[in-house]
Amino acid sequence: MAKASSSDQLKSKGNEYFSKGDYKNAIIMYSDAIQLNPSNSILYSNRAFAYIKCEDYLYAEHDCNKAIELDTKFAKAYYRRGLARKNLGRFRSALQDFEEAKKLSPNNLDIQKEIEQTVKILNSKQPIRLKPIMIQDKNLQSKMPLIDIPIQIDSDQSMNIDNDGDDQQIEKQLENHIRKLIPEQKPRNFIEFDQFWRELSRSDMKQQYLSIISIDNYRKIFEYPFESSLLFDVLDQLSQLSNQSLVYEILDKAIVQMPRFDLCFSFLSENEYRILKELFTNLIKNLNCDQKPDVIKLAKKFNLIL
């Protein structure tokens, strides 16, 4: 109960910052609230809206995905994901979100307005360009080059609303483009790491990405507190890497140094426990026998008894 109360207080502070137009601090408050109450869909939706105001549409889409996962009847989450996707040039996906939001909130005029505007865009036969990843805070901006991907559409191709293939074509071209960029990535902080991670749709791409990061850069990346969903996604992929020596080093020299480390591993869900157990079981199996005591000792730091 105390946790929920603290989460509500942080949410209220976030709302105050948002109403004043201080979206950066609103995001910080919502993020802290999520750490305490990660199953609250409203917190993700609120943070998504703050990201939209900052024009960080990839972050916004990610938070809306989580909000919808937690509450499939959350009209605002669909609406806000539609706004994010529309600004990313993914108009058909945006329209689907707006239409779903309309079903859940049929009298909302803002939703209807977005539907009409998006339909107009789709019928205009204008070329689609995916926007580059942007972060408005200059202190957090990546030094990596922005990605700007044009999607070519034949001049005589119909942009009829009934055609469902365009989004799939865009997604495939984007996936192929990002796959080619993986070997070039050298993320030096959390923002750069997270920015690219959110673009990786397949496990093999995530594992390749994790394999090319140096341990020194891992230390810098984990200087920032990870949300549980992101952290355990990373741990799940680490458990599948062939280089288990690297995995041990990442756990021992980077992740255990993460802020709020104890909090992240204090209250594990059934799935989170499964991921951890599999991760350390693989380490035991694949590392040398003389390293087993070190693995068992490290597991205890993660509240796991082997």
Automatic annotation (TrEMBL):
Taxon lineage: Eukaryota, Metazoa, Ecdysozoa, Arthropoda, Chelicerata
Domain of life: Eukaryota
Keyword annotations from UniProtKB, A to Z: Repeat, TPR repeat
One GO term describing the cellular component: protein folding chaperone complex
Identification of the protein by name: RNA polymerase II-associated protein 3
InterPro entries: RPAP3 (IPR051966), RPAP3-like_C (IPR025986), TPR-like_helical_dom_sf (IPR011990), TPR_rpt (IPR019734)
PANTHER family noted in UniProt: RNA POLYMERASE II-ASSOCIATED PROTEIN 3
Family: Belongs to the RPAP3 family.
